Protein 1
Amino acid sequence: MGFIGEDFLLSTEAARRLYHGYAERKPILDFHSHLPVADIATDRQFQNLFEIWLEGDHYKWRAMRTNGVAERYCTGDASPYEKFLAWAGTVPFTLRNPLYHWTHLELKRYFGIDVQLDEASAKQVWEQANSLLGRGSLTARRILKTFAVRVLCTTDDPADDLSAHRTIAKTETAFRVHPTFRPDNALAIQDRAAFRAWLKRLEKASNKSIRSLRSFLDALEQRHDAFHAQGARLSDHGLSECPVAHCTDGKAATIFEKARAGKATTSEEQEQFAAYLMLFFGQLDARKGWTKQLHLGAYRNANTRRLRELGPNTGFDSIGDFRHIAAVCRYLDRLEQENALPKMILYNSNPADNYAFATAIGNFQDGKIAGKVQFGSGWWFLDQKEGIELQLNALSNAGLLSRFVGMVTDSRSFMSFPRHEYFRRVLCNLIGAEMERGELPSDEQLLGGMIGRICYQNARDFLGLQVPEDKSA
């Protein structure tokens, strides 16, 4: 028998009432994910539990490596069943890691499997899950409908042609899938060959010849317009630090010419060019009323040998120890001075920065848009119970929790939607405990209303996305 009961993570009666009454049945607006949009366009049917659950999950790979599992069972040539068995054998060793909670929550919500996964139960779990997958009831689109996902935002490069998004828009009415403009490759001039290859892709997508900085910016703006026409209302940047070096138009043009010609650029030039583009992207977002997301502070690709062997996003990243706040505030201030500060969501990867981020957002609220600058949900290594609570506490103490736009999965897995449930349970447990201790009023309607807004309505109202009508929300 499993341990994911009706009141999982809900330690007080007040928490249980708040969750079951105000959070549990809210639909999902997942405004930041890395799900492959092609899988949704084709309504992919997963052939087995490995495909839907383990195929690209670097959280699990990290745990398996730590447990002494060889790489062939993570990213290598082992069979799907062998890889699943290796994961099943690792699960008992993940106690107190969020993977233990997520694993069993996902098995129960997707397949009705309520046993603790280990080597002994692995065959039963594999066969039961595969039987359900074989019936076609858990295709990519049916999963979104089953979990009441009203809107999903994917993460897309400006050079992507958005054809999969157009397919979904023409054929689906139960939910919306919107692209998110993520131009990180535009800043990556340090990799000369990759940047030049990406420029060719951008030329093709924008149908513009790129021969100068001006034509480069025009091509990026054309793609920004195309994303907007396809329903995009968010941009996103995954940066170690926010670049804020001073860079004139002339200097940016010189740096771009070097990069376009395949010449080496200095680290100083790379930062100057990135800072120049970040101002440009902020201006584009502000003109269209978009929301800009900044994911800051990850220390990426720490293991050079593994990066060469396996590539990025394979589980060799960690929390970085950067100094963010001066740079972030300078960036927002520059946009503010130009009256070009868009709505923003700032995510940090280091919990030591929570209060700094939570106070920084208060510097740039405009008195017009409620919560215009947001402190985003616990991200990456912080999207577990303690990390979620730390973010909620910092935001509560330094800002307005009631205006928070809530949780995102930030996931590459179609099995990740129960993370919204996980967040909602943690939120209700935190508020319910304070309610019972008399630290918050015993006013269920007041507190429940706040919880409902955090779980769904705030994001719906803040982001301006096209959301299928849902009278129950």
Note: Strands lie at 28-30, 149-153, 176-178, 234-239, 291-296, 298-299, 318-319, 343-348, 373-375.
Protein 2
Amino acid sequence: MSSIKLVRPLESIPLSGAVIHGNVVYVSGQVGFKAGTSELVEGGVAEQCRQTMANIDEILKEAGSSPLQIVRCGVYLVNIQRDFAAMNECYCQWMGEHRPARSTIGVELARPDILVEIDCVAGVS
């Protein structure tokens, strides 16, 4: 049986930035917080998307993975009709030619100023 490794476990709430099990990393939902803070980047959904993806990149790197090893993403938008195109443009820039499975869902998020959240599952080298 494989062991479980926690990546960036949080003391204040019961979750980790990611969990590695076997050769798979499960990244918890990330938002557009500036690195190491709970302060959102300024701007709209595109800026939050870029920061969210940068945050995921850092977690994947720490876990021994990369965006090119992502097999599935969940994208959660507060205003899916208004923000889908901007999010999708950022997402396409982030993924390049890589095409993992993806769901995009309209939701209410934990804070009213958070416009997008993304989680993912990736392979680990």
Note: The radius of gyration is 14 Å.
Protein 3
Amino acid sequence: MKQLSSVSPSTCSISGLQLAKKLGLSHATVSFVLNGIGEKRKISKATIDQVLAAAKRYNYAPNRFARSLKSQRSGMISVILPNFKMDWAEHVMTGMHKVFDHSELIPFVSTHSFNEVRNRRELLSFLERRDNGLITMPTMGCRELYREITKTPLPVVFLGDEIPELTPLISSVMWDPRDAIRAAIAHLAATGRKNIAFLGMDYPGLGTLHRFKAFREALHRQGLPVRRHLISRPPATGTAEQIVSASLDQFFGNRKERPDAIFALNDGLALPALEALEFRGLRVPEDVAVVGMGNLPHASLGISTIPEPVEQMGEMAARLLLDIIEKRVKPPIHKSISTSEFIARRTSGAAG
């Protein structure tokens, strides 16, 4: 192995290739070390230490711009999530970092808040930057733009939802909570609940449709009726509070068969439902039990819920995208994570 030059380090930065020549190492070895994957590539600790020391001494600076010109890619993965509320996005990114931290790709994170204009802008920015790939929870209003993206070499993975007509074109990572929903309904039935309402929204994504279908199937398994007036799926255009208010008006109108339990599509609806029920003078769980989905932070305050494997979904989406980029698989690939865990807390009659 060559010794480092005895000349003083330059005040100008040098490239990875120049650093490799100074050390008498291959460019690949130096690149692996500088990108933090030296140990993964079984490079000795002595070599790793030598490369890092030399990088500091010679003022190494990664020439990502030059690499992007050569590959016609930015070296980034565009990640477009719904929002940064609660800690859903944080858990997603924790899972993704488990994968991207061991690659040369850097996630570029933004949000669309289900605002179609904003999402279109983010998608067009992804195309203009020529990022190496896209991971996103899709919105229905950008169907045609997603379709146009499939005509480019840029790979896409939908996270947490699918657009039915694009399933044959775009890979996805989904959550399959059917077994967990069965456990939740079985719990409610075991505590004597017979009129279980569904509090959801009318949204054409497959994730929402699958949850509603699993709810109906779970009721049938328990020999419980699916009562039409206890199914509420208003348009997903209003706020959570507006959706809950309209749903409770429907459930507790002038009918004899009022619900003794409410199964909410997500914890984001379950929490305002608790407040609205209290405002109406109804006790939870004595008069009405409430169950949500997601296990968001506020759920730990006492909401019975079904935990979503968010971190695992983020990791699986990142691995799938890398497999597509490195041509280990041919898209579209559809993966799902099945769960059966249900956490019974105060809102469904559990102690504590």
Note: The longest strand covers residues 76-81.
